[in-house]
Amino acid sequence: MAGKAIIMSKVKQIIRLRKKGVALQSIAKGVGISRNTVKKYLRLIEVKGYDHQELLALEDEQLEELLAEPDQISEARQQALYAIFPDVEKELNRTGVNRWILWGEYKEKHPDDYGYAHFCHHFKVWLNSGEATMHFDHQPGDKLYIDFAGKKLQWVDRSTGEVHPAEVFVGVLGYSQLTYVEAVASQKKEDFISTTENALHYFGGVSQVIIPDNLKSAVTKANKYEAELNADFADFANQYNTCILPARSYKPRDKAPVENAVKIVYSRIYAPLRDKIFYSLKELNEAILLLLENYNNRPFQKTPQSRREKFEQQEKEKLMILPTKRYEIKKFKSATVMKNSHVYLSEDKHYYSVPYRYIGKKVKAVYTSNHLSVYYNKERIAFHKRKAKAFGYTTIKEHLPSSHQFVSDWNPDKFLSWAAGIHPAVKEYISVIITSKTYPEQAYRSCVGILSQEKKVGRRRLINAIERAIHYGAYNYKIIDRILKGGLDRIKEEDPGQQSSLPFHTNIRGAEHYK
């Protein structure tokens, strides 16, 4: 992946994992990029002197801009440093020798090279990169293992009798083995992220690392060396300030705690429920929760302490704080700002305003289930709550040019009220025009044109023209305009029961001609 840009969610994962002391090779496998790319970004952050916590607080667009066009770092200097590390490691085993002394000796030979902090940092990286296996010494609050059970539960639709299978999510904390179980409709991304989030809220905190299996909702592309994380799951982890390290394919040891938990869940939860019928997913989960509490409160076989007691006494305080808001999956859409200063979101069939100076520009809409943001050149230019009203407009008046701001008030009630103030027949006419259109907005300009005629020709003439148009069943602006321009509103309607006689004309042959 050298030379290719990576998404900023992965950069944040790299920073978090590195802060926790995870080896470069493990980071590369967990994040799904090459080890050299991991080293490149860590070196760039180090050389530029950026604070890790400040980088994590930035929006993805800001972080991307900050790390754009990385400086060219001398590889020769680092290679020379790494070449002496085998000797440094040997020297550290000698009595009285420490890193400070060895760095001093290094500095005498290379006065312009690395300072003490960078020397120690690179030595630690070198040590970690030489590790052959991952260690699973569980520390309080360190790891949460998650997976779906291989066997499903089920519930029955009471009205139809249809049986619905339910996937069963299992999450277990590595240290206390406190377990969370939930039945969901599927293993799809939305359900997977939701249950993972529910597990964190059940525990009341966030582990340092989450270790999933290689299911599609967590890992877009499984690979023995470089697994590619699902972008939404990585984004979820960033909001919860945690890291994702997928288990290696065909390496059950990587997720042994959850593998064992699934086996126990079969006997402690599946077995007691095997003969019961549930008529909703909610009923099923209520039954699961009761059995789960009994399981978590049951003492271990070899110790009198339960999972819950071990968690409360030794692990709970080690978990990180939950964020104030729940995670919402983000979706992205490119759009062009229309001439009316709005962008169209097809999923809602709804229009959202942006500042008029971006008319004609290509923008990116980022939206969740509740909100929509519009970005131009990585800068947010609009923010709205999502609306479900089809073909409606959500408009901030300041987004429109002053000459067009009154248009933001256009709606059926406005025009019907305006028309009623002229005459009931006018209101009736405008109502028909509005309801006859597939989208009410298509009728608004016609309504403005018709109702504005009052100022041009007077109320009486407009009423007469509309009554004449109603008589002929013609409902549009053009017919009203023709009636007024032709003065037809001043002509009294003829009685359809009377037949007017034709005037004499020399070119008319008459009945005699055809005898």
Automatic annotation (TrEMBL):
InterPro entries: Integrase_cat-core, IstA-like_C, Resolvase_HTH_dom, RNaseH-like_sf, RNaseH_sf. Residues 136-318 form the Integrase catalytic domain. Gene3D superfamilies: Homeodomain-like, Ribonuclease H-like superfamily/Ribonuclease H. PROSITE patterns: INTEGRASE (PS50994). Belongs to the transposase IS21/IS408/IS1162 family. PANTHER family: TRANSPOSASE RV3428C-RELATED (PTHR35004:SF8). This is IS21 family transposase. It comes from Fulvivirga kasyanovii.
